[in-house]
Design brief:
mainly alpha; 3-stranded antiparallel sheet; 5 helices; about 10% strand; 3 strands
C-alpha cells in the first residue's frame, strides 16, 4: 500500500499516511522498515528543506513489485466483454451507494 502511494513520485510522509489510512507514527515506522530493505528512500523536499519526501527505492523495484499484479489483472479483464465489465461496474457502484446509505 505504501509503495503504491509513492509509485508516481516522491510524497511527503503525511500524504502517505492519509492515502494509506495509517497514523503518522505508523507511517514513520513503516518507512523506516522499508528504507532498511531498500524499497524506499527519504529525500529532501526541494520546496521546503524542513520537509522530507518519501520516494520509491528504484523504478525497477516498483516494477518488480507491481508488474505481476498488473499482468494478472490484465489477464483477468480479458475474460470479460465490455458489456460484462459495464454490468460489474454498475453493480459495484450500486453496492457502494447502498453501503454509504
Amino acid at each position: 500500500m505504501c509503495l503504491g502511494a509513492i509509485s508516481h513520485g516522491p510524497r511527503p510522509a503525511n500524504v502517505v499516511a492519509r492515502e494509506t489510512n495509517l497514523t503518522p507514527a505508523a507511517v514513520t515506522t513503516l518507512i523506516d522498515r522499508l528504507e532498511k530493505r531498500g524499497f524506499v528512500s527519504r529525500q529532501p523536499d526541494p520546496d521546503d528543506r524542513r520537509k522530507v519526501m518519501v520516494a520509491a527505492g528504484t523504478e525497477e523495484l516498483v516494477r518488480r513489485c507491481y508488474h505481476p499484479i498488473f499482468e494478472a489483472g490484465a489477464a483477468l479483464l480479458e475474460k470479460y466483454t465490455v458489456a460484462e465489465m459495464q454490468f460489474l461496474l454498475g453493480f459495484i457502484e450500486e453496492v457502494e451507494a447502498m453501503q454509504k446509505a
